[in-house]
Write a structure and sequence with these properties.
Blueprint (H helix, E strand, L loop, with lengths): L13 H29 L2 E2 L8 E2 L3 H8 L1 H35 L4 H6 L2 H4 L2 H11 L6 H8 L16 H26 L3 H9 L5 H11 L1 H16 L3 H7 L10 H11 L3 H32 L1
Antiparallel strand pairs: 1-2
Helix pairs in contact: 1-14, 3-8, 3-11, 3-13, 6-12, 11-14, 13-14
């Protein structure tokens, strides 16, 4: 018998591709790609969303946005949330994940309890902590007053100077459990043989964490940073529930300001401009992070 022919890799035919990929492409086009394109189109119109005929004004909305201090305040607040997310969530979630990983089955109950904040609705969290942060009857100020620390009792979400930091800290608290789970899954994926070999070579405790475990889960850490960047810049729900972007736009983000402009002031054209700018900022940051992480992996 002659030598059997080598089997070619599976190459799906066009009808198969259409059947399996067609619905996904259609749904993405209708609910993702077209809204983005239409948002850019509407950014060149003055339209309230109610009148039939939008008025073409060219780059008028874009020029107004570049001069709009409230828009730039939203951009600033988005980056404050981003810096606090990376500075708080990465150390806390990584530290707790390492603690739970090393604790094994003894810390099983903590694995569930730490995840509770992420299971709660953002609306419920916002309503609850709006009471906790209350100036007169809030839990935080009540504890401070009881401990004779009245000087530290602040108007946590009513003072424009500190409101963004209070709400950002709450956002970090809510999402830390998600990143604990992400890092814990990455740590559980490390081969026990690698850790045993490192222990034999004298790598224990902090040395094991710094030289073995953290480098092996660097991909998950970079993924977490990417998610934080994208999520922080377009964050909406908790900010809106707690403060509505106030006071004096001090907790406004690009997303909350977009909502106020488009659906409160009925300026859909200008709101579409802000939405388009938000897409450009998030897309640019995502591309930049992807480039930097890919370059880092190539160098290593």
């Amino acid at each position: 018998m002659g030598m059997s022919k080598r089997l070619d890799p599976f190459k799906p035919k066009l009808p198969t591709l259409i059947i399996f990929l067609g619905p996904t492409v259609v749904l993405l086009s209708v609910f993702l790609i077209w809204p983005i394109i239409d948002s850019f189109r509407l950014s060149f119109y003055d339209w309230s969303g109610l009148n039939v005929k939008p008025k073409l004004i060219g780059f008028g909305n874009w020029e107004e946005m570049l001069k709009d201090k409230n828009f730039w305040l939203g951009v600033r607040n988005g980056f404050i949330l981003l810096v606090m997310s990376i500075g708080i969530q990465i150390p806390f979630s990584l530290g707790l994940a390492l603690l739970l990983y090393r604790g094994g089955e003894r810390f099983r109950i903590f694995k569930f309890s730490y995840f509770f904040p992420f299971l709660m609705s953002s609306v419920a969290v916002g309503i609850l902590f709006r009471q906790v942060f209350d100036l007169n009857f809030g839990l935080i100020n009540s504890i401070l007053n009881s401990a004779n620390l009245e000087a530290l009792a602040l108007d946590w979400i009513g003072d424009p100077k500190i409101a963004i930091y209070s709400v950002s800290a709450l956002v970090c608290w809510q999402y830390i459990p998600f990143y604990i789970l992400l890092f814990l899954a990455a740590l559980n994926g490390i081969s026990s043989e690698v850790e045993e070999a490192a222990a034999i070579d004298g790598a224990e405790n902090w040395k094991l964490i710094r030289q073995i475990q953290i480098p092996l889960i660097r991909g998950s850490i970079l993924t977490a940073i990417t998610l934080m960047v994208i999520g922080s810049l377009k964050y909406f729900d908790l900010m809106w529930v707690m403060t509505g972007g106030g006071p004096l736009f001090s907790t406004s983000t690009m997303a909350t300001y977009l909502y106020q402009v488009a659906f409160k002031s009925y300026r859909v054209g200008y709101g579409s401009t802000i939405a388009s700018a938000l897409f450009i900022v998030v897309f640019t940051m995502a591309i930049l992070i992807n480039f930097l992480t890919r370059r880092n992996r190539t160098e290593n």
